[in-house]
Amino acid sequence: MNIGDRVRLLTGREEGIITRLLSDELVEVAIDNDFTIPVLRREIVVVAAEESKAFGKSAAAVESEKKAASSGAAMAAQAAKKAGMATEAPAAKPAAKGESPTPIKADKAQPVPVQKGIYLALTHQSPELLALHLINHTDRTVLFTLGEEKASGQYRALKAEKLEAKSASEALGHWHLKDFDQWSALLVQLLPFQFNSPDAFELLTKRLQFRASSFYTSRQPNVPVLQREAYLFQLDEKPAAPVALPVAETEPAANAPAAKPQPATDKQQLADKLKAQLTGNAPAKPAAVAPAPEPAKALVAPSHEIDLHLEALQPEGGTEGLSNSAILKLQLEAFEDTLSRALATNMHEIIYIHGSGNGTLRKELHKLLSRNRDIKFFEDSMKEKFGYGATLVRLK
């Protein structure tokens, strides 16, 4: 069994996709491309392989079904069939006497065209080897940098190039599907540019951490520019905004007084200074020292459990005399900071320990969570230990 295989549980009717190989006996299966559970290998069976044995399909058909299952095409076809959208060729009309019958071709569903944008595409070089490309499907030139972020949080720069409009880069790297659960997160920086354009654009930064539940459903049959099948991910969901530049005054105002001509003595002094500089006798000016740039801070994922009690947030003390509103503000700031880092680092869930008390902090947290579209759901957690003093947050 490999990552991406569609499998069925032997003890039930559930089907899913293998997302990780946890050990020799245990795998992780994503049910409905979302909910993941650990399952023993002996309790699951590969859908395409077992059904082909029962119905006697060819090896080519087995491979085709396996690919369709991994990309989610099998589920889409089944849903279309239930909705009465199956495309079958209608019966040919009987031909008139002396005429040959005219065959009628079945209608094929046209793929949804890919909108303009900048994409990262992974194409098959072999069944297990993928090549990484950047696609510029826009009307502007793009300067880009590509790097990877290790599990330890260390960043390593890989590539920096210019990508012309309506073009694709050469292969920027090769990844093996068998090592899917060990792929590093990618960090891509994009700077659009257009010759003679009146606008300058801001730098776009995109961090990609691949998940099997969404990776295998991103396959497109014919991506732009490359004109071949690929796993496609858009990098510029939010287009780069033009930079507001300050307007420099290059001409004097209409009411400004005219500049007075310099007297002869001033001209003589200016000529003496220029002569001294040319002969090397002018005093050396101190070199301007540019401040050293601050190193980019690595984005660190928060811990799985966050304690929002005041003594946990400020263990060194110094919180005497704080009002209840000031304490609540401090707790909410810690909550928002850890939640944003959890979303940015693709965490699945996080637990907040807020205590029961009078319920004010719990009510504020639940209010903010209910408005956040990146939250799948939240519920009380570890009631046997905290009662109603802890909340589990499941992230999308």
TrEMBL record:
Domain Smr as annotated: residue spans: 353-396
Gene3D superfamilies, sorted: 3.30.1370.110, Smr-associated-like
Lineage, top ranks: Bacteria, Pseudomonadati, Bacteroidota, Cytophagia, Cytophagales
One matching Pfam family: Smr
Protein name: Smr/MutS family protein
InterPro entries assigned: Smr_assoc-like_sf, Smr_dom, Smr_dom_sf
Renumbered residue ranges of the record's region Disordered: 88-108, 251-270
Bias kind Low complexity: ranges: 88-99, 251-264
